[in-house]
Amino acid sequence: MSQLPETMTFSCLVKKGQCEIRKRPIPALKDYDVLIKMKACNICTVDYQQFMGLREQQGYPMAGGHEGCGVIIARGAKVNDFQIGDLVALGYQGCGHCLECRHGNVSGCTSFRSESEDGYKFGEFGFADYTVKSVDSLYKLNSSLDPSEAAFTEPLATVLNGMKKLHVRPFETVVVIGAGPMGLLNALAARSYGARVIVSELLDEKIATARKMGFIVIDSKAEDPVQRIKEITNGEGADAVIAAVANTKAYEQGIQMLKERHGRFLVFAAGHPGPELNIPANDIHYKEMEIVGTYGGTNDDFEDASKALSMGMIDVSELIEARYPLQDMQKAYQAAVDGNYRISIVFDDQ
Ligand SMILES: [Zn+2]
Ligand SMILES: [Zn+2]
After folding, report:
1. Distance from Cα 229 to the centre of ligand 1, integer Å
2. Which of 23, 192, 224, 349 shows the greatest Cβ crowding within 10 Å of its Cβ?
């Protein structure tokens, strides 16, 4: 590219139910920054729930968009290991100095800055034609990947973080409660670890998608999921249960699905307002149960996620519901609210 752009066009939420397309100057590249021409950025729950007014504590104007990927078109003076033309996924930008960052747990950075210098909340600027990132927050991908699929690196990293904490092993039975995008991403990951995966869901459309992807599916409005798990496992129960919905009733069912001893339970999703998890402490003690939480991926998890997608070992194509250009962001948000799976913002080649 001979002439580099000077302004970036991006989408931000200015109030509940309303987004705007704005322009700002592209920030000057620091030594370890690169300029990225975005290829795709998917609308996460964090984004569309702000559109719905459910997470207004996040503040306005919000220029989010963190599930993205793009191609490097310019490099800062000291960037060596990333090349012009590399397809990269966006990761988390931490301070690089705190204990969490030094352990690679960037989502737990204690001086995490979620606001840009010009006052945009969640200022990741993924819903933008161009964006500037420091290379320590980027992960290389196979350039031939579909951009909307490559944009699953961040959510997959989050899922792999939970998978490692759950210690999923081959031939185990893993139940995923909820067949939304994150539920099915958990199901895909558990299957790639060699587990038998059973998905519990009540919405017909999501049940159909989960079946299409080859999972054993329990229709939880038609049958008792706890009973069904007991039948499938010859009365033993599941080795591990992943709660990909945030709901007290679902938690209760999940705990009851576990095998009698050494069952593991992963709280994957957050709810707003937050649900209660009610378990007798003696059960945790006598049954030697493990209750695990996960929130974000570490740098290692991002590396693994970019590998899994690049090698085609995890196929997320069914989890993309529709693609929209940036200009139709308002419609795209509404589609994300109304839809079941990821809405992807895609950028034309210029
Ligand atoms: Zn996300
Ligand atoms: Zn930090």
Report:
1. 30
2. 192
